[in-house]
Structure formats: C-alpha cells, structure tokens
Amino acid sequence: MLAALSALWLLLAAAFLAVLLLQLLQAPRGAPPSGLLQDLIRYGKTKSGSGRRPAWLWFLDVPKRWFSHFYILSVVWNGFLLLVFIQALFLVRPLPLWLQDLLSAFGEASQNQDVGDKHLSALLVLILLWLHSFRRLIECLCISVFSNGVIHIVQYCFGLGYYVAIGLTVLCQMPANVSNGKIVNLSHNVPFGDWFERVSCPHYFAELLIYISMAITFGFHNLTWWLVVAYVLFNQALAAILCHEFYVNKFSCYPTHRKAFIPFLF
Ligand SMILES: NC(=O)c1ccc[n+]([C@@H]2O[C@H](COP(=O)([O-])OP(=O)(O)OC[C@H]3O[C@@H](n4cnc5c(N)ncnc54)[C@H](OP(=O)(O)O)[C@@H]3O)[C@@H](O)[C@H]2O)c1
User: Fold this and answer.
1) Fewest CB within 10 A of the end CB: N or C in the chain?
2) Which residues line ligand 1 (CB under 6 A)?
3) What φ, ψ does residue 62 adopt, rounded to 5°?
4) Domains of the chain, residue spans
5) In 3-state terms, what secondary structure has residue 61?
C-alpha cells in the first residue's frame, strides 16, 4: 500500500500536472487570464503581469521577499533532522519519540536494500538538502534583489509546509531502526548568458536536476523520491511556462529559439 507521504507527493505531482496541462491548453495570446486559480499559481513578476485582480485578493498577498522564510525554516528544521539523524547513526542515540511517531505515521517500511546503504543515502540526501537550503538562504539574503512582487498567502503556507515535509520524506527512506553585481534597477529585463541563452528559466531546470541527483543518491529505485521529483518537475514547469509567457508578452524582441524550461525540448 502507498504510504501517506508517497500518496501526498503523488497527489501534488498529479495536481501540478493537471494545472500545467490546463495552462498549456489555454492559448497564451492577448491578456493573461485572471481568476482564483491564476491567483494561486502565479507569483512575483508573473502575478503582476496577469489580469486585473479584485481588491479583496490583495489582503491575501504577502511580499515575495518572504521567500527567505522558507529557507530559514528549512535550515533550522532540516538542520535539526540532520543532527538527530547523525546522533542516531553514530552515537546510537534514539530519535525523539514524537519524531519516531511522526515517521511511523507517514512513512513506509523500506525493503530490498542493504540497511547500511539506506542510512548512507538518507544521510547524504539530508546533507545535500541542508546545503541547498543554506545556499538558497544566502542567495535570498545577499544576492536576490526582490522588487515589490507578492505571493498568495496559500502559496506562502504551502512553501513552509513543503520544507517540513521534504525533510521528513528523506528520514522516512531509512529503515525504522534507526554577488558582487551592482543593482541597476528593480524592473524585470531579458536575462541572458550561459543557460539563459537556451531556456527562460535555467534556475528552475537546475532545481529539477538537484532533485534528480538526490534520487540518484537514493539509488534510482526509491519510488517516494521519484514522486518528489515528479512534483518538482510539474511545479517548476508550470512556473517556467508562466515566466516564459511573461517574457514573450513583455518583450517583443524576446529570442524565439529560447525554450521555457528544458533546453531544446520544452
Ligand atoms: N522546489 C520547489 O518546489 C520550488 C518552488 C519555487 C521556487 N523554487 C526555487 O527557488 C528559486 C527562486 O525561485 P523564484 O520563482 O523566486 O525565481 P525568480 O522569479 O526568477 O526570482 C529570482 C530572483 O531574480 C529576480 N528576477 C526574476 N526575473 C528577473 C528578470 N527578468 N530581471 C531581473 N530580475 C529578475 C527576482 O526578483 P522579483 O522577485 O522581484 O521578481 C528574484 O530576486 C529557484 O531556484 C527555484 O527553482 C523551488
């Protein structure tokens, strides 16, 4: 039977695939569509480029610069999980009881692989996840220059939940016994250079590659992690086509050979 966490990732991947297909079916000509769904999927520059929004929706907006909260939470929460996991592995100290309960409620019993391998894979992925979150936090605090873009409060809560769930998902994979750039302005310009010459959102593509590399670290055959990868794929593909559409509508000279998300393909 599919464990609760696998079912969650499957559901999220399916939901984002459905919205992605819906978005692809709507011809991206003229003014971008508006409405509650659009309000929930767009954020930052692609939200400001969408149609007129009813005034009451503004009350549900929070600043996009609050993205840093996701990574503060992730660094603290996943750092805590990493610490207790290391203590469990090397000092044979049991995980806190509440965490054991949480893991057994959401996780699945892992089989068919050497226990030592599983511990090492989970440890490596947790370290990679923590480093990734730390790098993103530094990026948010010291490199990213956020304009006055907003995100929906639902997206904000979803982001917080995401970084809690992702660390628990990693722990559930183990057996149960254990810039120097100058700011020119705050407007959005055509990005160029390196991978930006091939796709509009190479950073989203890189995000996908990061999660695939974690799936490889888990030894290719971890279904739950492939469901996480599927979720990241559809989530980032959706964000990428909205961003691509934003650039095509905003810049008449936008390079036509540029794909949205995956070089040469999509
Ligand atoms: N794993 C997940 O589920 C997940 C979900 C979402 C994001 N992420 C990751 O989080 C990272 C950031 O995502 P994001 O959606 O915030 O990226 P983004 O919209 O491209 O924004 C990143 C930064 O670049 C600025 N920017 C964006 N487009 C620009 C342009 N054309 N000209 C000048 N500045 C521009 C943004 O400013 P503004 O904010 O003012 O636009 C912001 O400071 C990415 O690596 C993404 O993969 C992961």
Assistant:
1) N
2) 44-45, 64, 67, 144-147, 149, 162, 188-189, 191, 203-204, 207, 232, 235-236, 239
3) -125, 155
4) 15-20+33-42+190-266, 60-179
5) strand
Question: Does residue 171 have a pLDDT over 60?
Answer: yes
- pLDDT 10s digits, 199-253: 999 999 999 999 999 999 999 889 999 999 999 999 999 999 999 999 999 998 9
- 6 pLDDT above the threshold of 50: yes
Residue nearest to ligand 1 atom 37, measured at CA:
146
Q: What is the pTM of this model?
A: 0.82
* Nearest alpha carbon, ligand 1 atom 26: 188
Pocket test for ligand 1, best of 188, 229, 235, 253 (most atoms within 8 A of CB): 188
Q: What percent of the chain has pLDDT above 90? A: 59
Sign, CA torsion 218/133/240/232: positive
CB 14 within 8 A of CB 232: no
